[in-house]
Amino acid sequence: MEECNVSGMMLIAFDSTQQALRTEMLLEYAEIEIDLFPTPKEITAGCALSIQFPPAALNEVQDIITQERVEIRGIFMRDDNMIYISI
Questions:
Q1: How confident is the model at residue 7 (pLDDT cuts 50, 70, 90)?
Q2: 47: Cβ–Cβ under 8 A, 6 or more apart, which residues?
Q3: Whether this model's pTM surpasses 0.90
Q4: Domains contained in the chain, CATH given
């Protein structure tokens, strides 16, 4: 069951740890359920940390990223084959 839950999560990848930690703070302040997560090896990014969040929060997360000018590598989700795709 846990694997299904993880596969349904969205993931933000970053090029810097500073941006990952800043985003963590912004999303926690907005009371969005998040988890710091090691960046999967399938995603090329300059930072070893990513942030997972539920798909229902996607619009709010995108708004915060835009408003706060957060620099990200991208937002990803897993498809049915458990492959990360950029959205």
A1: low
A2: 13, 14, 15, 16, 17, 19, 20, 39, 73
A3: no
A4: 2-76 (3.30.70.120)
